[in-house]
Amino acid sequence: MDLYYVTYVFGMAGYSGNANLLASSIQYVINVALTVPALIWVDRWGRRPTLLIGAALMATWMYANAGLMSTYGVVVPGGVDKVPEESMQLSGAPAKALIACTYLFVASYAPTWGPVSWIYPPELYPLRVRGKAVALATSFNWAFNLAIGLFTPPSFVNIMWKTYLIFGIFCTTMFFHVFFLFPETAGKTLEETENMFTDPHGPKHIGTLAWKTRVQTKRIRAIEHGEIDPEKFAARYEESPERSAESATFTKN
Questions:
Q1: What residues are paired with 88 via a beta bridge?
Q2: Cα separation of 153 and 149, whole Å?
Q3: Most confident of 139-143, 193-197, 244-248
Q4: Predicted pLDDT of residue 24
Q5: In the chain, what is the straight-line distance between the N-terminal and C-terminal CA atoms, in Å?
Q6: Please, how many CA atoms are within 13 Å of residue 241, restricted to the half-sphere of its CB?
Q7: C-alpha separations of 75 from 20, 83, 160 in Å
Q8: What CA–CA distances, in Å, run from 104 to 22, 97, 177?
């Protein structure tokens, strides 16, 4: 929402003309710059911690903006400068806080949900269904982008500050969704990832409980650097209970 319609937000904070465009463009610089740390360290951080922290921070800034606008915002009939979507106006310190929280939202999104939402889906699926599954994930991603694009302008007009409250609730839901249902995939082989979902010791159709999974990047890098013999590792994997469970699953199918 902030990425698409930040000009409305800054218009409500008192910016107009070139000043609005300049202030709005800063968020794109923040978005690009803060994507770089994720490119470097996301395998070390892991997918789950990155998504959980991102969801928590984004929810915080959404709720903060909702609170600022509901407390200090003044309803402007017809909108600021006759722009209906700029339905409220803030000034002084609250306006600056609104802008700061908007930038902080982008800074929280850029190294977390921005890149990981593209990294995570391909790591979840076995090769036999990966192409179709990732295509569906990408299609739904853009479908919901379209929905947000269509929803936000009329929501600014009709429910005003409550728009931020709705997106804050979505971010909170994302946090719990990831915590309970998103297993860690960083540093995992395709076989290990599939085993998490076929683990007979976990709930049916879920497998290993998501919060019990761990980042394995150090181990996989050790294999790549020759510090662990991949043949011995493969032999241990073939003898493991997880591999036996996987074999039994394929036999049934």
A1: 75
A2: 8
A3: 139-143
A4: 87
A5: 44
A6: 3
A7: 20, 13, 9
A8: 17, 10, 23
